[in-house]
Amino acid sequence: MVGRHLIDIHDHLRGELAELRELVSRLAAGTADPAAARGAIARMTIRSNNWTVGAYCASYCRVVTGHHTLEDQAVFPHLRRSEPALAPVLDRLASEHVVIHGVLEELDRAFVTFIADPGDFRVIEDAMDALECTLLSHLSYEESQLLEPLARLGFYPDQVG
């Protein structure tokens, strides 16, 4: 049950990443203008999160940041106390969170710059490629390393899979 919940959260992040990739592709192809894309993105984000944010990228950054903050502040300390042998895995995952947040910030800056002054789209494409690579690799590694311990230990003390 706990492992399935982690996969569900990760699948949601993967789905939103795919939607962001599709939007970036449409902007690059010129089949969506930035203002219309921005409106579509805001509606998509508000639909599930009730955020009044003008750009999906900023909202997506918040979703990922919230997920990682919960892991860093609650789930990882619980796992570290319950199973000290997981320390190297948890250290790597926490370190990857920092890297992913830097990549998210770069993508956000690229989007803001492009919307303000449409021009060279390669900056957004490069930032999107970096996000896709780092986030998907991170999610896969986390699942491969933590599904079994989470099934035994739960996300929090006194919660077992």
Describe the structure.
This protein has 5 helices and no strands. The chain is an all-alpha fold and 161 residues long. It has one domain (2-153). The radius of gyration is 17 Å and the shape is elongated. The termini are close together.
Detail the topology: elements first, then pairings.
Elements (H helix, E strand, L loop, with lengths): L1 H28 L4 H16 L6 H27 L4 H30 L5 H32 L8
Order of helices and strands: HHHHH
The structural domain count equals 1
**Which term fits the overall shape?**
elongated
Low-confidence stretches: 44-56
The overall strand count is: 0
Residues in helix, %? over 70%
Q: Which strand-content bin applies to the residues?
A: under 5%
Helical/strand content category: mainly alpha
What Rg is obtained from the alpha carbons, in whole angstroms? 17 Å
Q: What does the average pLDDT come to? A: 76
- Terminal-residue CA separation: 5 Å
Q: Largest sheet, described in full?
A: none
Helical element count? 5
> What is the assembly state of the chains in this entry?
single chain
What attributes does this structure have?
161 residues, mainly alpha, 5 helices, elongated
Entry summary:
It contains five helices and no strands.
